[in-house]
Design a protein that fits this description.
alpha/beta; binds iron/sulfur cluster; Transcription Regulator spoIIAA; 33% helix; 4Fe-4S; 508 residues; binds 5'-deoxyadenosine; single chain; Rossmann fold; 4 domains; 15 helices
């Protein structure tokens, strides 16, 4: 078993020097996080804990104070932010969008590529003067970057005005860390290199009609370019009854769309040793809950099995959209990325999915310029994109991440070539998106209305079941409702359309 309590966890998972910074019973230790340590995957059980995260003496500490959290990176981070917002509000803090009136500012960071890290250091530069003008401001850095020793050292040396650094496995400790920062003089650093228990019942602040639900934490895939398995720890699935209870509760509260989250949702349940329950089983159970739309992200092609395809083909609230990251169309490159599937296997899977769900929308992630990627290998990515015909894709230039195996490979593709490949790939993807959207001209689609468009307040904005963006004219009161829109002007990024008359008439 790996630590049933936080104290145990600290002692059992961290190697290296420990210095108590305080002799209080909630002492904070400075523990340099280690990617090497994080890579060790033991057989230890992960315990599920259901206690409250807010100590009694912290329940009013935020009264009269305001907080702001800036979130970088993926949906997992967005959702972690919701948890931190929930905790801060249970401590009495109120939200603000204005840095100048914030008493606590947290940067929830992303480590996936170098430019994500650069943005955070840029933001820290801006916050320095704010901290100088308002020394009572509490500044914290959390998220994936905090799991990297080099980042923690850089902040301690060059950005010593930061008050708290805490890792992805320490989020539930936020109230205790804030208390330490208020009462202590030194920077509070708490980063566990290895994952701890699964903490249920943490408060979450959710707004609007869409909600994220974590079904698992961590990743054991260790793709050679990726830092996530180190920063997020080993795969740990939440118990099905906890996930289902959370979704039922959201359904009762009237949420219209739920996205199940995990770094590799297809590995859900593989870590249970007492029950045989997979991601397909979970989706089949979620299907029976009265929520109009259920999505999931992100899946790994390797673990995407026939049972799951069968369940998704039942549709209902399970939407026809699958994000299926391919990364490269070349079997050789996929091997060096340690993706554990070939181009052929991926295409076979896509074929199966399309046969079972003919109107499925497929999206993907692609990396160009991976070490050693030749022109021919890049052309294989282009031909795979032509064959699959993705509706859209996230595309990236490879960015070496310290501590990952690919960072030791020779990064021999010239920068200019990487950029040209990215441009060509994006042009192809855009052309396909445009063509696919064109097929929707004249069709009527179901749209969940989000509200006024960010770019044009005269227009309402919403999403189809396949997550395509739709703009149309209509009364603001439709926000949060399902309507039908006839597509009149499909474009690459947005489908413009007209509200069908019956839906317009429903609004009084
Ligand atoms: N460089 C570039 N892109 C990366 N991704 C993950 N790690 C890297 C990296 N080192 C991309 C992958 C992944 C997405 C979330 O980010 O495509 O699917
Ligand atoms: Fe990273 Fe691969 Fe895990 Fe996705 S599956 S988080 S790309 S290691």
């Amino acid at each position: 078993m790996q630590g049933g309590s936080d104290e145990l966890n600290k002692d059992s998972t961290i190697s290296g020097t420990k210095q108590a910074k305080s002799d209080k019973d909630y002492s904070i230790y400075f523990q340099p996080p280690s990617l090497k340590e994080a890579k060790k995957r033991g057989k230890e059980d992960v315990q599920v804990r259901y206690e409250s995260a807010i100590p009694d003496d912290m329940k009013t500490i935020g009264k009269g104070r305001k907080y702001l959290i800036r979130t970088f990176g993926c949906q997992m981070n967005e959702h972690d932010t919701e948890v931190m917002m929930g905790m801060l509000e249970e401590m009495g803090y109120e939200p603000t969008e204005d840095k100048l009136e914030a008493d606590v500012i947290l940067l929830n960071t992303c480590a996936i590529r170098e430019n994500a890290e650069d943005k955070v250091f840029g933001e820290l530069g801006h916050l320095k003067s704010l901290k100088q003008e308002k020394p009572s401001l509490l500044l914290g850095v959390c998220g994936c970057m905090s799991q990297e020793e080099s980042v923690v050292n850089r902040i301690m040396q060059k950005h010593a005005f930061v008050d708290i650094i805490f890792g992805t496995h320490n989020i539930h400790r936020l109230p205790v860390l804030i208390k330490e920062a208020y009462y202590g003089k030194e920077m509070v650093v708490e980063v566990w290199s290895k994952e701890g228990d699964i903490i249920e019942n943490l408060p979450k602040k959710r707004e609007g009609m869409k909600a994220w639900v974590n079904i698992m934490y961590g990743c054991d895939k260790f793709c050679t370019y990726c830092i996530v398995p180190y920063t997020r720890g080993k795969e740990r699935s939440r118990r099905p009854q906890d996930v289902l209870a959370e979704i039922r509760d959201l359904a009762r509260k009237g949420f219209k769309e739920i996205t199940l989250l995990g770094q590799n949702v297809n590995a859900y349940g593989k870590d249970f040793d007492d029950i045989d329950y997979s991601f397909a089983d979970l989706m089949d159970d979620v299907r029976k809950i009265d929520v109009p739309r259920i999505r999931f992200t992100t899946s790994h092609p390797r673990d995407f099995d026939d049972h799951l395809i069968e369940v998704l083909a039942k549709r209902g609230n399970l939407v026809e959209h699958i994000h299926l990251p391919v990364q490269s169309g070349s079997t050789e490159v996929l091997k060096r990325m340690s993706r554990k599937y070939s181009r052929e296997l991926y295409l076979e899977l896509v074929g199966k999915i399309k046969r079972a769900i003919p109107d499925v929308m497929l999206t993907t992630d692609i990396i160009v310029g991976f070490p050693g990627e030749t022109d021919e290998q890049f052309e294989e990515t282009m031909s795979l994109v032509r064959e699959v015909r993705y509706d859209s894709a996230f595309t990236f230039i490879y960015s070496p991440r310290d501590g990952t195996p690919a960072a030791d490979m020779e990064d021999n593709v010239p920068e200019q070539v990487k950029k040209e490949r990215l441009t060509r790939l994006n042009e192809l993807l855009n052309q396909i998106s445009r063509e696919k959207n064109e097929q929707l001209r004249g069709q009527t689609v179901e749209v969940l209305v989000e509200g006024e468009s960010k770019t044009n307040p005269d227009v309402l904005s919403g999403r189809t079941r396949t997550n395509k963006l739709v703009h149309f004219r209509g009364p603001k009161e439709l926000a949060g409702r399902f309507v039908h829109v006839t597509i009149t002007e499909p474009q690459t990024w947005v489908l413009k359309g007209e509200l069908v008359a019956e839906d317009a008439a429903r609004v009084v």
